[in-house]
Design goal:
Elements (H helix, E strand, L loop, with lengths): L2 E7 L1 H16 L17 E5 L5 E5 L1 E7 L41 H7 L28 E8 L10 H15 L1 H11 L4 E9 L3 H16 L4 E8 L6 H18 L5 E6 L16 H15 L13 H5 L12 E6 L23 E3 L5 E3 L13 E2 L19 E9 L13 H10 L3 E7 L3 E2 L17 E2 L1 E8 L1 H16 L2 H16 L15
Parallel strand pairs: 1-4, 1-6, 4-5, 6-7, 7-8, 13-14
Antiparallel strand pairs: 2-3, 9-12, 9-17, 10-11, 13-17, 15-16
Helix pairs in contact: 1-7, 3-4, 3-5, 5-6, 6-10, 6-11, 10-11
Amino acid sequence: MHEIVTLQLGQRSNYLATHFWNAQESYFTYGDEEQSPIDHNIHFRQGIGADGSDTFTPRTVIYDLKGGFGSMRKINALYEMEDEPGLQQGLWDGGKAIQRDPTIEKSDYQRSLDEGLPPPPLTTETVRYWSDFNRVFYHPRSIVQLNDYELNSKLMPFENWDMGEELFSSLDKEHDLLDRDLRPFAEECDQLQGLQLITSADDAWGGFASRYLDKIRDEYGKTSVWVWAIEDGAKDQRSKLLQRMTNSARSVHEMATMASLYIPLSDSPAFVPDWINFNQGSRWHTSALLCTALESMTIPSRLRNGKLETFSQIEGPLNVNGNQRIANLRFSVDDPKKLDAHDTSLGSGIAARGEGRTVNPTGNTSDSEEEDAGAIKDLDIDLLPWAAAPVSRTRRRTKRHVFGRVEVSRGESGDSESSLERDAAYRARQRLAGRPITERFHSGLKFPLLDSFPRIFKMSSSDEQSVGVYSSLSTESSVAVRIEALRGIVGKNVGLDERETLSNGLDEICEAYEEGWHSGSDEDDD
């Protein structure tokens, strides 16, 4: 069945994943409805509830700190069992003093879902935790609370990369986290196509994820593992920015070499077009923006009717030189508010689907090549985080070179056939000519705009229930610019014992995005 198991690490990851699971739940069909185009067995497992009924719960493991789950309980309505009458006292016959943490009340949205009533509209004020807008039941094994640290603690904030690394090591010695948490889900799969690990990369969760991924690679060496690495793009004090960038550098150095694909995501993109109503201070909003791209980009991996493309097929065209594992994610939304497709003030976006010349975010122009006519070129929103550090002149680029690109469009228009089956001869011709390897996929299934999803898109109609999305993953020279900026920060903020190893490792990553082309060649520029 080509199943996928997901690991969610930390608050920002869980906000993003909650939007993802809500979208998957919306694809279910019941009774006499037409069969869903989504194969639910890819991301959901079948089980038996407390009352003997069949259940479908996500194939996921959710880690968060104490207090991070909000009002969510480990045992939910699907698996809840009544207490047996008469409490057994055991060997102690004396009195008991029970101390309980203050309980977090359910949001009005959750109470309405429990009672089967239409839920009230959500706002940034009513969404306090990711569980406040969750629409899915999880298996009790999916919920893992880490009590060593508390969410939003002022005394011991979970921010330093080393803290996450140390926490994983201490917990793993006691429990063997992979055996206890991940293996039960992986062993239920008939044909595991891959794992997706969603984590924040610029705080302590980056260290936790790095050690987790290291152990995964020991056990599942040939399995595709995609890492979605979230970084905070908001402005902050200089000391905190430097710490975040240092954490990001260490995460890239550790995970990019072990992951099949490492996709860095800025939750506050540098450029946000006018058609987005976006509150950068709300994780509910920022995670919704990221989910639109992530869920759309991965949709080929869970379609039925013979159209399914596995993780390994999708990542194939991207890793052109064998060591290009960091990919840049971009996306656009189809014609919000019926905007003029040729309005370049929004970026190239939808207009870039036509032939001819396109405009990229840096303002440089390039001719569409014969093999790439009609391709999705530069989309409106670039999610690659950019470090606030100077870039050396040796690697400064006036133009962006693309090595490989996978494009996914979803909506009513577009070619319904996939080009991901292109043979090796096509890829060899593209490499020889210095052109990017471009693969495309189209699905008629639009992205759902649920009542749990914030109205961040300015649509022509307020009651729109879905939207077309155009997304792309690409390996390109801009990754080297980003890594070089991180390397410059490492030289100032990491101890001498680690500086050389980390700097050399980041330098090797940069070189992987410069091989095989020259900045002075017009023929090679995309």
